[in-house]
UniProtKB/TrEMBL annotation:
Name used for this protein in its record: ALP1 protein
Location(s), subcellular: Nucleus
Protein keywords: Hydrolase, Metal-binding, Nuclease, Nucleus
Domain spans labelled DDE Tnp4: 5-86
One MF annotation (Gene Ontology) recorded for this entry: metal ion binding
Pfam families, per the entry: DDE_Tnp_4
Organism annotation: Thinocorus orbignyianus
Transmembrane residue ranges: none
């Protein structure tokens, strides 16, 4: 869209809108078709991320038992699993669907209540609007 953007994290409605947290438009009867499509695409992107984490945990089941390792080791362990996982995926190392049997999708921790409007960043709406335009220009896929 002709404007350089930073990376953003995907959040849900409970997170404050920030220029680095992309969240859906609030679901109500006033949403335009464009905003509904944006929300749909954001949900699809989020499901891809959830599936990637599910496959990561299924392939490296040590990640399911991280409560018995030291906190200092944890970031290195997760990073090593991510790197090895990406190497396996890049080289078409077969993923055994049976590995998923011991792995359940888990709800990631998130705030219990929506963030107050005062926490929202005014510039963030411009970022969301730009992403909304971008998603629309990509067409449906």
């Amino acid at each position: 869209m002709g404007k350089a953007q930073k990376y953003v994290l995907l959040g849900d409605a409970t997170y404050p809108l920030q220029d680095w947290i992309l969240k859906p438009y609030q679901e109500d009867a006033n949403l335009t078709q464009r905003q509904l499509r944006f929300n749909y695409r954001l949900k699809r992107a989020h499901s891809v991320i959830e599936n990637a984490f599910l496959r990561l945990k299924a392939r490296w089941q040590i990640l399911l038992k991280c409560d018995d390792c030291s906190l200092e080791l944890l970031p290195t362990l997760v990073l090593a699993c991510c790197i090895l996982h990406n190497i396996c995926e890049a080289h078409d190392n077969p993923f055994n669907e049976e590995w998923l049997e011991g792995t359940e999708p888990t709800e990631l921790p998130k705030p219990c209540q929506p963030a107050p409007a005062a926490m929202e960043d005014g510039r963030a709406e411009q970022v969301r609007e730009l992403m909304c335009q971008y998603f629309e220009s990509c067409g449906e896929s």
